[in-house]
Structure formats: C-alpha cells, structure tokens
Amino acid sequence: MQQTQYQRDKWPFLVVHGEGIVKASPDTARIVVGARTENEHLQKAQEENADRIEGIRTVLHLNGIRKEEIQTTDYRIETVYHYADGKQTFAGYLVLHLLAVTVLGPEKAGAIVDMAVKNGANEVSGITFSSSKSQNLYLNALSLALTDARVKAETIARAFRAKLRPVPISVIEAASPPAPEPFLKAAFDSSSTPSTQIEMGSIQVRASVEVKYTYY
User: Fold this and answer.
1) Residue 134, C-beta contacts closer than 8 angstroms, at least 6 positions apart
2) Global pTM?
3) Average pLDDT over residues 120-124
4) Does the residue 143 lie in any domain?
5) Nearest by Cα to 31 from 117, 99, 114
6) Which of 43, 82, 106, 131 is the most buried (most CB within 10 A)?
7) Domain limits at 66?
8) Residue 44 is part of a domain; what is its CATH number?
9) Is residue 45 classed exposed, middle or buried when 0-12, 13-18 and 19+ CB atoms within 10 A define those classes?
10) pLDDT tens column, 80-120
11) Closest CA relative to residue 174, chosen from 208, 215, 124, 140
C-alpha cells in the first residue's frame, strides 16, 4: 500500500553528513606578474611602467602565450610621501600594472616567471593552479560524499537494530565546485632571480552533503 505524505512525515529519521575528497594534478596555472615603478614625475613613472609591461607582453607572446590569455587585473597610480621627524614630504608617484597570465601546462610556470622578470617584471603577486576538469572532479567527490553518508547511516541503523529505507528523504549539498589552489600570495620585487622552481603539487576537490534517512 502506498504511503501518504502524512505517514512519511511520522517516520523516525536520522541525519548524517558525508564527505568526499578527490585529488588530481592541475593542468592550468594562473600567474599574476607586473611592473611597479616610481618617479617624482608622473609621466616618467608611467613611461617606464609601460616599457616594462611591453617587454613582459612581448616575451610572453614569443613563448606561445596568446593575447586572450593575458589580462590586466590591476592598474593604479599612487602618490608617494616620505615621513621624517613628523613631517610629510612629497616623494613622487608610484605606478602599478599587474597582468594575469593563463598558462596551459603548469610545469611551465617557473619558466614563465623567469622570462617575465628578465624582461621587465618586478612584481609577482600570485600563482594559482586549477584543472579544466574541475566540474567532473567535483561530481566524483560528490558521489563519494553520498556513499560516505549512506555508510554512516547504515552503521547507525544497525547499532539500533533498525533497517534503513534506501531512498533518503532529503539531501543538502553543502559545498561548491573547487576554487583554484593558491601557490604564492606574497609579492616580491626583484630585477633578476635564479631559475624559479614551482612545485604545483595536486588539487584537492572536496564535497560535503547532509542526508536525511528514515528507518523502521
């Protein structure tokens, strides 16, 4: 006999949380590089900055980075002051221009950083790794989370000598698809650097669910 909604609402239930984790190698790197220049004359600071950025763009293009894979993420002009003996003295202007570079093949990240620095970059503010298959990875993690929740529910039901109804009455997804994994967040300022070795590691994709089962 088919159960009514009222009867189902009266069934005893239990709530469990499940978690699934999937690890994978990244296939894309996003590198933020740029130029920071200072001069007492704004136009000169801008010109020097533009020269550095052009050098960065040129070397990136020569090494297979397409125009659409380079995007300005920050451009600012700030007034610089020096402070001494409680007095503020005008020192000039600071110009900052940052480019986000998408690199297909994260093993190239170190070489890209080196080339950018040798051709004008004096600012590296972040490297993140991601996967073009992130959605599929997340769905795999979600499947593992649901399995984890069911195993927990079955274990609890057995402990009370009860039987779990196979279809849950509620499933709440408690996570979203993964964000890129950060590698470097601190900026540095250098006109030259030894060969940069980037350890990309692996991406960890996590999913969580809250599942409500009834039992009898």
Assistant:
1) 177, 178, 203, 205
2) 0.74
3) 96
4) no
5) 99
6) 106
7) 28-131+181-196
8) 3.30.70.2970
9) buried
10) 999 998 899 999 999 999 999 999 998 999 999 999 999 99
11) 208
